[in-house]
Amino acid sequence: MNIDIIDDKIVDEFSKGDIVFKIEAAPNIEEERRPVGMVNTKEDYEKRLRTHFYDPILFVCRLPLRLAYLYGCLNHSFNAHQTDYFYFSWRRLRETVWNDWFIVHPYTESIHGDSIRLL
């Protein structure tokens, strides 16, 4: 799997509660993005994580991977691949300009190798 981090410093800003994020999807890089869900706050994310079935792997992976999983941007079952690119964008509270944070690319699972970077 490939997650391209565009702005890594946003993890710290997000943990302070100073920003919100939104998710958009597109079938490829050239296509227009469509909204996926709503704007999310730090509190929305924390509630989703706390109410999710406990899986210790979620607490050792990097925040972008955790968000991609919790918000349904990864494959839902083995060999049932997502076909869209998912774009996570951020903005500061009380501002209107959205900035790219990271992109989740479609991927194929690897049984005998590293398919994701957890840390």
Mean pLDDT: 89
Largest sheet: 5 strands, antiparallel
Q: How many independent structural domains?
A: 1
Distance between the termini: 14 Å
Major sheet strand order: 1-5-4-2-3
Approximately how much beta-strand content do the residues carry? 25-35%
Counted beta strands: 5
Number of helices: 3
In the predicted model, the low-confidence regions spanning at least 5 consecutive residues are none
Shape: globular
Structural class: alpha+beta
Q: Helical proportion?
A: 10-25%
What are the secondary-structure elements, in order, as H or E? EHEEHHEE
Radius of gyration: 14 Å
Describe the model.
- It is built from 3 helices and 5 strands; from the N terminus they run E-H-E-E-H-H-E-E.
- By secondary structure, the protein is of the alpha+beta class.
- The chain has one domain.
- It has a 5-stranded antiparallel beta sheet with strand order 1-5-4-2-3.
- A hairpin with a 6-residue loop joins strand 4 (85-92) and strand 5.
- The chain starts with a strand and ends in a 15-residue tail after the last strand.
- The model has no long low-confidence stretch (mean pLDDT 89).
